[in-house]
Design brief:
The chain is an alpha/beta fold. The protein has one domain: Maf protein (Alpha-Beta Complex), CATH 3.90.950.10. It is built from six helices and seven strands.
């Protein structure tokens, strides 16, 4: 693995899973939190919303100079079912309602990735289809009690306990986790940033 001792970008996220995914592809980085209003605009389509969120997060940290003028990478993930956006649950009841809607059905997971640097902001999109098996109410309640769903889009984490609920995934596993590595690598390559193998020629 080729790694630099010095960070090559700033991750605009406090998400541990996104840090781990960047580490997986050998991208040393710093972290800065991007506090933005995550409200959905009236009539806003899910794809437009998730792209806007990733763009705003990258832009916010870049504009604040929190990155030390390193390029800024940001991402946003949502679950979509029947055209409805499922973000992070507000509370236990909200999470249980989300899980009840998802169980026994397929839903879409959209993750947008944005990279901001002196040349502007580029955005890539990942779309995956996830199918849940049916869940008993007591099973969903026990899952909430683990603490895992509290800050996850759709109230579940594919890389955690919820893996036992998932029948199939069609698309990007890392995208469902919150940082699609193919699209991320493409953004880094286009900006000339190195990864484990310098992201190509």
């Amino acid at each position: 693995m080729i790694e630099s001792a010095q960070p090559v970008l700033c991750l605009a996220s406090a998400s541990l899973r996104r840090r781990e995914l960047l580490k997986q592809i050998g991208v040393p980085h710093t972290v800065a939190s991007a506090d933005v209003d995550e409200s959905v605009w009236p009539g806003e389509a899910p794809r437009d919303y998730v792209r806007r969120m990733a763009h705003e997060k990258a832009q916010t940290v870049w504009a604040r100079h929190d990155s030390g003028r390193l390029p800024v990478l940001a991402a946003d993930t949502i679950v979509v079912l029947d055209g409805v956006i499922y973000g992070k649950p507000d509370n236990r009841q909200h999470a249980l309602e989300m899980l009840a809607h998802l169980c026994g059905r397929e839903h879409e997971v959209l993750t947008a990735v944005a990279l901001a640097n002196s040349r502007g902001i580029a955005v890539r999109m990942s779309s995956s289809t996830v199918k849940f098996r049916k869940l008993a109410p007591e099973e969903a309640a026990a899952y909430w009690d683990t603490g895992e769903p509290k800050d996850k889009a759709g109230a579940y984490a594919i890389q955690g306990f919820a893996a036992v609920f998932i029948e199939s995934v069609n698309g990007s596993y890392s995208g469902v986790m919150g940082l699609p590595l193919f699209e991320t690598a493409e953004l880094l390559r286009s900006a000339g940033l190195p990864g484990w193998c310098k992201m190509g020629p």
